[in-house]
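re: ur question from earlier - yeah i can do the single chain one, its not a big deal. heres the input i used so u can compare w yours
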Amino acid sequence: MQTVEQPTGTVETAEEFRPAPGATPWHVRAVARVMSGLCPPAASGRDGWWLVEEGRDAVAVHRAAGGEFQRPEAPGAEQQRWDEALRADRAHLAAHGIPVLFAEGDRTVVHVPAPDRPQSTATARRVGPPTALTTRIDFEGFPGIGGMLRYHPGDPLGAYEVADHLGQAAPERFTEAAEAVAALTHHYGLPLPVRVIPRSNPHHATNRT
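and the output i got, formated as tokens:
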């Protein structure tokens, strides 16, 4: 699912962020913070930039200028103005350690590498009867969110199914439990990588996760 940061004229700060289903992903927020150091985001009647998520480690940076959201095709002063703004965008991103994967028209796709060390921590605890093969996922520091991880052995669609605390299931299945937890982390807008800590359940017949 793509996350579109359409022109709003505001940038969410780290202090303002609250994880929630469908929250703006961490790498989109990271690019927004870098771009806000160059100029404000686009808003009604104001030039600037806006963002579109391109997978879990890439973001497309779009430019708005002169009240338009597409680079003029005809050569002239307006096209030159756009090109200068796009060059400034790309140089600013590269100077802040965000490499440009490719540039096309008014679209600059950048790579946002995940840090080497975990940025989020999840706990995994088996719940329900052993035959349910269900694990509860919680995120440290954020009570009230999390989800359920269900194991379906032999399922050709993927062994692991994950749903958030509201019961909304991810549209795909996963072959590894770690992939499913990472998808849940991303769903809440929490930063990756995520460390998963198994927790024992004294009321469960088995404590394996």
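Residues 1-10, 204-209 have pLDDT under 50 and may be disordered. not sure if urs matches, ping me
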